[in-house]
Amino acid sequence: MRLFDEHAVLRFALLFACFMFAAFIPSILSFDHIYTFIPYAVAIVFLAYISIFYKFPTSGNTKKMRNDVEIPVQVANDTVRDLQKDLMEKDELFQMMVDVSSDGFWTFDVPTGKVYWSNRVSKLLGIDYDKLGDSFEALKSHVMESDWESFRTEIGNALSENHPFTVSLRLISQGDGVKEVSVSGRPQVNEDGLPIRVIGSIGAKQDKAALERQSYYYAYQDALTGVYNRKFFLEKLKIDVEMSAKRPDYTFAVALLDIDSFGAINDSYSTNFGDNVLRIVSDRIKSSCRDGDCVARIGPDVFAVILHNIQGADSSEDLMPIVRRLHNNVKMPIQLEGRELYITVSMSVVVNRDVDCVEDIMANANAILRDLKKNGDHGGIQFFTGGIREKAMKLYKLEYEIRRAIQAKEFVLMYQPIIDIEAGNTIVGFEALVRWNNTEQGIVSPAEFIPIAEETGLIVPMGALILKMACEQTKKWVDMGYENIKVAVNFSAKQFALDNMVEDVRHVLAETHLNPKNLKLEITEYTAMCEVEKTIDIMRALSNMGLQISIDDFGTGYSSLSYLKRYPIHTLKMDKSFVDHVADDEEDASFARMVISIAKTMNLDLIAEGVETAEQLEFLRREGCRQIQGFYFSKPLNPEDALAYMKEHYAAAVHV
């Protein structure tokens, strides 16, 4: 029942109307029959029902408010959105962006003739902002008269033809170090197409010469050291060669300087340390050269110098003193990051009188450096002599032939026996030695192709081929019953440094089904000392596989006993150079005794290489070296002869 809930007056009015209808209408209207009275009665009842129970619509939310909810009261000092303030902030932000820009901005109001300048314009023109005013007078007074006339013409044409413009203006007084400015503008028109203002910018015009110098720097300068790069060097060398062809008296020399073992510096310290060494070396080279000489960095650790006017009529200096001074200054000890670093630099020198083209000069210089490094003459100086060009071409041809031989599998293995003289001269293993069976020259000595393979990196695919061939042959012998035979395979420093070296060895063993106990890997003492921690990790991984590791040419490197103790090695091989004179030279004999003592103390096997005489053998037997390799017992043998040798000298119970 809603009688007293809402719209009470309306409801009582309706009830009163029902009462009045019920009381007076029947007396006014005469009802002849009961059926005529029923609709009248139903209407009164319906009206009464509406007045009591019907929910009339309301014009608003009249729900009762909950008393248990607190409505926060707005704090009087809360921030109220202020559109005018927002506009001011945006204007300030725009002004700040304009001020920090390297260019200045201006607007010219056409109806009033007034000009607005940004703060940056005052700095470009070199005057106070207050003196700019609201016209073009300040600009007029600070630029050349002819340029001002050009500006007037350009802005006039822009207003009349409604197009943008740009004009260069030379400044009379150079504000902010600016000599010339570039002024640009674009007219703005109304709905009738008439100009109402011009909006423009003004900025320092880029110095064309400066841009050219910058482009020149990026194109021809070495970013690390600041000297010229290879591109510039070759272009300059070409110019000098052309000049010498026109002028017989124009003499110059090209010197290449290669920092020896620079990779070891990066590995031992850091790349940043190595970069600083390069900067110091380049600075020393520049300071050692004369004004007309050209210094460039043409490789990661190779610098090139063009020495002009050497041995010429106009020069008071001879070439040799220049080269010696340059070489001596570069190799001086380097003080860097609290360390004193000693470097050696190999240097080749070619004079243009001996060679007449860029390609020959560079080929000969590089060939000289190659020879220096191959011969172990690190830190030396070598001048071009006749025949080096031919030798360089021979080396290039040899490199190509080696690549072809790897693909054609022209390399074959010879096997030199290793004998245990304390076990009845029985064979305990072989060293696999590679030979090149060249289709034209026949068998080629490794001394001719191993150095070039090392330098070019071809030793890596060649070494992988040699390892697989040796494992396949060893597996054949094992299957024949020679279960304890071991074959040693030499690994180069480049092979040993490969990140996937261990996995490659594991893959070859799995592919050939060879037991790791039948394979021994030989690395030189020098290789063992490169990246010591990495080398130890690799050795441990190989040793855990069941392989044995030998240190070849022991005594020729610089390894210390403290490092040697950390290596998981099994065998030392005494270099042939110390075995040659053990019977007749007490110094060599003393060294051999020391190596034998080291092996015994560290419980390592020792193999003496290059044993050729009975006197050498007797000395080694007396001093306790029991494993011998050399021509005294056998030269390297092909697989068939090696098998025949094993049949005569193999003992099944032998274990190494």
Could you describe the 3D structure shown?
This protein is an alpha/beta fold and 656 residues long. It is 47% helix and 20% strand. Helix 10 packs antiparallel against helix 11 and helix 12 (358-374) crosses helix 13.
* Estimated radius of gyration: 49 Å
Mean pLDDT: 82
| End-to-end Cα distance | 114 Å
Oligomer: single chain
Report the principal-axis shape. flat
Secondary structure tally: strands: 22
Largest sheet: 8 strands, mixed, barrel
Query: What percent of residues are in strands?
Result: 15-25%
Query: Helices and strands: which structural class?
Result: alpha/beta
- Provide the spatial order of strands within the biggest beta sheet: 14-15-17-18-19-20-21-22
Percent helix among the residues? 40-55%
- Helix count equals 24
Q: What are the low-pLDDT stretches, counting only 5+ consecutive residues below 50?
A: 74-80, 312-317
Short description:
The protein is an alpha/beta fold and 656 residues long. It is built from 24 helices and 22 strands.
Could you outline the blueprint of secondary structure elements for this entry?
Layout: H1 8-28, H2 34-53, H3 83-100, E1 104-109, E2 115-117, H4 119-125, H5 137-142, H6 145-161, E3 165-170, E4 180-189, E5 195-204, H7 208-220, E6 228-229, H8 230-246, E7 252-259, H9 262-268, H10 271-288, E8 294-299, E9 302-308, H11 319-330, E10 334-336, E11 339-341, E12 345-351, H12 358-374, E13 381-383, H13 388-408, E14 411-420, E15 426-438, E16 442-444, H14 446-456, H15 459-479, E17 486-490, H16 493-496, H17 501-512, E18 519-524, H18 525-529, H19 532-545, E19 548-554, H20 561-564, E20 571-574, H21 576-579, H22 586-601, E21 605-608, H23 614-623, E22 627-628, H24 639-649
Parallel strand pairs: 6-8, 12-13, 15-17, 17-18, 18-19, 19-20, 20-21, 21-22
Antiparallel strand pairs: 1-2, 1-5, 3-4, 4-5, 7-9, 7-12, 8-9, 10-11, 14-15, 14-22, 15-16
Helix pairs in contact: 1-2, 9-10, 10-11, 12-13, 13-14, 15-17, 17-19
